[in-house]
Fold:
Amino acid sequence: MNEDRDERAERRVPLYRNLVSHLGLLVMTGSAVLIFFAMLSQLTVKQPSPYVGIFTYLVFPAIFGFGLLLVLYGMRWEAKRRRRAQALQNLPYPTLDLNDPRQRKLFGYALVGGSVLGTVFTWAIYNGYLYTESVEFCGTVCHTVMKPEHTAYNYSAHARVPCVACHVGEGAGWYARSKIDGVRQVFAVAFDTYSRPISAPIQHLRPARETCEHCHWPEKFFGATLLQLPHFRYDEQATPEQISLTVKTGGGSKTHGDSAGIHWHMVIDNAITFVTRDNKQLDIPWVRVKHADGATVEYFAQPLGKSRAEVAGRRPHAMDCIDCHNRPTHAYPTPDGSVDEALFRGLIPKALPWIKKLGVDALMAPYAGQRAAHEGITRAVHGFYESKYPALAEQRRADIVAASQALLGIYDRAVFPDMNVTWGTYPSHLGHRYWPGCFRCHDGRHVSPDGKVLSHQCDGTCHTMPRRGPITALGVPERTSAKHWHPWELEAGVDIAAHERVLCHECHQAGRGPLQSCAACHQ
Structure:
């Protein structure tokens, strides 16, 4: 009787009783404790660190899974050891006999415990999936890499739209594609091989019809938009002005009548295809337009022969919303436009003399890093008034501090030295003030073989002629003005017609101050 009892006891020695499995159990226990406290931290702390989520739902569960694999590997290793040792009294595989009260009890414990554990980890895996889809994960986990894009995102009109809504969209296919690409990005961050600045993924974005158009419905676009742009001159008084124009947004569908406008380019009744020489789509040598009636016209940038040769070796691209609205969420301000806005909103006191010129010059000066920029901008503003206007510097110290703080905020929104991001790093194709934009095609230099020119005359087609006048109430544009619409009047005797082919962005460039005289171009 005693021998039978000893034999049963020996036969029931579990397979997990080995060093490897014990180590795995230790890893599982430790990671489970860490997961519990991490979840508790998320529930009790109002603003937990973004790293808490990644450790709670990704790192710690991965460690737990590794521990489980160690347990299973140890059991398999123990089973092979018993076979080699021919220890038949200790079977290499576990047995289950529910007629045995002890085994039935252990089975019940295992079933209940496994169900609870499975439920908890299913919840953790699901929350891990949600976390990888969150703005926090996309924008703040890799602080240095994504700081420029995340900062621009927070200031954009899409700040409440999750990153994945545009960068991934619906469906398992694009989700899997984004995560596979994400593995490459993780390795690039881990081994510090990512580019500085990071490249804009225009070529790899999902088509706008599958993302943007869930909210923006092109078939419903029509009408016009009034723009009232505040402008302050570079004189001592920072003279306030307003540039007013009506942008003919229009639509691309005949159902709205004769309302073509800018959105005529939408691929509804018309189809546009183009070829670009660079990955930023700034240089477009060839455009093909297929009209609603089926007529097709091709336009080649001059010289014609060179453009034809390049088109033959490049893949045509069908025009999409993102080809013009390429910075809908990650737009970076320009120094002069940002100072104008800050003056208009009262963030920079308008009573400070020369504040427009001083602010723009301070923002555009080269700095070694963010700390040096903060010191340099503050020193430039305070030093100017202390040396040029000592009495005013004493009386309006609070205004000078407010101005310098506003300028620091503008700088921090657009310049990120660690990522080599500065004022002109990421071009915007919307409009044509600081970058080619519309003039990538509508520059007056794209010509069809039969001599038809792709026009660059904005007035009448895209927007009304701008008007310059005093700042007016919202929605009340200046109807008549004796002033020329451009704030910088050409000098007397200058042939205005000779400057018709000078495009806006050739003088206005992000990060470069406006040209003050003809000598800037004509040496």
User: Anything to note?
Assistant: Residues 335-419 form one domain. The two ends are 113 Å apart (CA to CA).
